[in-house]
From TrEMBL:
It comes from the Eukaryota. The keyword Transport does not apply. Belongs to the cytochrome P450 family. Heme binds at C405. One of its GO terms (molecular function) is oxidoreductase activity, acting on paired donors, with incorporation or reduction of molecular oxygen. Keywords: Heme, Iron, Metal-binding, Monooxygenase, Oxidoreductase, Signal. This is Cytochrome P450. The lineage of its organism: Eukaryota, Fungi, Dikarya, Basidiomycota, Agaricomycotina.
Length: 488
């Protein structure tokens, strides 16, 4: 077996040693102490923590036929979701069908068809940042949410606090996060408890209640799209596509409903959190990279128009800023949902048993000084030349193997277009207090959740010039006209 700390007891193994707060830091320490692959015993489940890009690539990419399943999530997947959420599904025919559908709608070429709405929503984000810069967090969340809901159901989101779809989805995600905490429920370690009657299992009741709420609103949203299709008023959307291709994919109405819930669950907090990290990096490290970024933008774009997707190839430094943002503070800090092995195998002389939970700790992988010297420093220059690093992106933000993030193109496009435009249009620096002193920010102040996103921080965001402001306003006016089609 790989090396690791001794378990504290036969029954719970190492479970009680795992810190409740930011366990990724402890995992990083273990990898520093024991090596790139560490073994833990979580209850009865063998668990492997990977701490380097190379080991993660070898295990999760090269051995992907045996390492692409998920651990059992009894509360979140089996009870609350009746095994309907593909993200937590075990590797098998039903996951494959779900994944094929997502590929068809989100990978490479398909994701290009969403660029127009990403561009339009980004123009609204720009104008919102001019009007109420202190509410930057609300604005980037509205951007990420509205793009997701337009793509999924063909309708916009104007207010993230009152929109019904957003509130219901948020409740679902919060419930899911609150029950998917390792060690919280005994039934996760002793599945035989599932056979007890309902009266003896009160933990089941709340999860079943949430399941009923989810089924009601997820199916209602699909029916709304169906009605719009019948009336000839449904813009193109993921949901409409699924309804049209229903027979080809052999999906039930409920499967369509849950599949449509996927982009919200996986794509909103990740995208908004990454953009928040970008703004935090601007606040903490701005003078070291913003001048170079703005010089590139001024040379290639100039002050008379905003950057677009067509400028992507001509903006190498902006692309480097995007990659560095994804590396510097990986939002899916533990590599997203863990993988699970479906066969015994040997890696570098170490035995990995079938049924192991495998965690690719992105905190350790991205903050490994061998691959990224001075790793906590935000430095886009790392991405200006090709380095010896496994995989297509030179970072590991989107995970590995057959489970690699199917929304990676959509997400990268959102990060690119907003990073390019925000750097083009705004001066970004530390906010100042009443005495005119700069307010320092803490680049480690992040949430403890499944996704780790920056806690609120102050930042100064002001238009670079009157000319930039005029273009931001003009572009937004035209964008609002174009987006009306999603409001009917
Ligand atoms: C910056 C934004 C994003 C980041 C950093 C990110 C990262 C990740 C990571 C690390 C995984 C786990 C991969 C693995 O298991 O090895 C994942 C899975 C996933 N992501 Fe993303 N993601 C982002 C945005 C999105 C978006 C916009 C979507 C919308 C379609 C999406 C959909 C998914 C789905 C469905 C999975 C589960 C795949 C499966 O289990 O087969 N993600 N993502």
């Amino acid at each position: 077996l790989p090396p690791g700390p001794a378990p504290t007891s036969w029954l719970v193994g190492n479970r009680n040693q795992v810190p409740r707060q930011k366990p990724w830091r402890w995992f990083q320490e273990l990898n520093n102490q024991y090596g790139p692959v560490v073994y833990l015993q979580m209850g009865r489940t063998p668990t492997v923590v990977i701490g380097t890009a190379q080991a993660a690539w070898e295990i999760l990419e090269k051995k992907s036929p045996s390492t692409s399943s998920r651990p059992r999530f009894i509360m979140g997947q089996e009870i609350m979701s009746n095994n309907m959420r593909g993200l937590m599904a075990e590797y098998g025919p039903s996951w494959r069908r779900w994944r094929r559908v997502l590929h068809g709608s989100f990978m490479q070429k398909a994701s290009d068809t969403y660029k127009p709405i990403q561009s339009l929503e980004s123009k609204q984000l720009m104008v919102e940042l001019t009007k109420s810069p202190k509410k930057y967090r609300e604005h980037i969340e509205r951007y990420a949410t509205s793009v997701t809901v337009v793509i999924t159901y063909g309708r916009r989101v104007h207010d993230i606090y009152t929109d019904e779809v957003v509130c219901l989805n948020r409740q679902t995600q919060q419930f899911l996060t609150s029950i998917n905490i390792p060690g919280k429920y005994l039934v996760e370690s002793i599945p035989a408890l599932l056979y007890l009657p309902n009266i003896l299992t009160p933990w089941r009741t709340a999860a079943l209640k949430q399941r009923a709420i989810d089924i009601e609103y997820l199916t209602r949203l699909v029916k709304e799209v169906q009605t719009k299709m019948e009336n000839g008023r449904a813009p193109h959307s993921f949901c409409r596509q699924l309804i049209e291709d229903r027979e080809k994919h052999e999906m039930s109405e409920l499967e369509i409903a849950y599949t449509c819930g996927t982009p919200f669950g996986a794509g909103v907090e990740t995208t908004a959190g990454t953009l928040a990290s970008f703004l935090l990096a601007c606040t903490a490290f701005g003078p070291s990279f913003i001048p170079k970024a703005q010089k590139e933008l001024d040379t290639v774009i100039g002050p008379d128009r905003m950057p677009t997707f067509d400028d992507f190839e001509d903006l190498p430094f902006i692309r480097a800023v995007v990659n560095e943002t994804l590396r510097w503070r990986p939002v899916a800090v533990l590599g997203g949902t863990p993988h699970a092995s479906t066969e015994d195998f040997v890696y570098d002389g170490m035995f990995i048993p079938k049924g192991s939970t495998i965690i690719a700790n992105l905190w350790g992988i991205h903050l490994n000084p061998t691959d990224f010297p001075d790793p906590h420093r935000f430095d886009p220059e790392r991405f200006m030349s090709k380095r010896d690093y496994p995989g297509p992106w030179q970072h590991s933000s989107f995970g590995y193997g057959r489970r690699v993030c199917p929304g990676s193109n959509l997400a990268s496009n959102s990060v690119y277009i907003n990073v390019a435009r925000i750097l083009w249009g705004f001066n970004l620096s530390k906010a100042r207090d009443q005495n005119g002193q700069e307010i320092e920010v803490d680049t480690f102040a992040y949430t403890n959740g499944f996704n780790s996103v920056p806690l609120p921080f102050p930042i100064s965001i002001t238009p670079r010039s009157a000319a930039h402001l005029a273009i931001i306003e003009r572009e937004n006016e035209a964008a609002q006209e174009e987006m009306k089609t999603y409001d009917s």
